[in-house]
TrEMBL record:
Biological function: Catalyzes the reversible epimerization of D-ribulose 5-phosphate to D-xylulose 5-phosphate.
Residues reported to bind substrate: 8, 64, 140-143, 173-175, 195-196
Pathway annotation from the record: Carbohydrate degradation
Residues annotated as binding a divalent metal cation: 31, 33, 64, 173
Active site: 33, 173
Protein name: Ribulose-phosphate 3-epimerase
Cofactor note: Binds 1 divalent metal cation per subunit.
EC number: 5.1.3.1
Amino acid sequence: MAVQINPSILSADFARLADEAQAVRGADWLHVDVMDNHFVPNLTLGVPVVESLLKATDTPLDCHLMIADPDRWAPQYAEVGAGSVTFHAEAAHAPVRLAREIRRLGARASMALKPATPIEPFEDLLPELDMLLIMTVEPGFGGQSFLDIMLPKIRRTRELISRHNLPIWLQVDGGVSAATIERCAEAGADVFVAGSAVYGMDDPAEAVRALRAQAEQATLGAPWACAH
């Protein structure tokens, strides 16, 4: 499976989002953190900014909705053109119906799990999803330290995906950097959200390339990748 690097614009300069999107050309996706000050204690952006970003970049948008009532709001992000829409398992009332609606509208359907939420109860939902997001920090703020205790959960999630032979991407978000990305890749992740590790560097595009190279190298020797 190909490694994908998704720079998070939460760490970008919001006054220069169009320029910041261009600064990471070569990235696979732009990760857009949508927060509503209800599900998480922070407020960021919404559909109008996503629509504007889509006009400013050819890089597809990976929208991570840290919001209450995603059943109502998530489809709008697919409707305006987001390539991937992630809702939180903890917030969705009818996750299967929501995932199917997101797919019907032309986007990839993804479900996120907070650190304390186990993956096992959602095993039967996996065929409805295109990606799973394992949060490696508590959602709500950028710049947090990576939670090593999430590595076993990443491994268990990869094992479930492999057991069912599903083409699901496994994304990690939170504290992903040059110091942590290899451990995530070895555990089973193949999509990596990086904020300050990209936009905090002098050359964000080079940071994307370097992170990709690290993850690809770590994946080569990973047991889960060798099994495919």
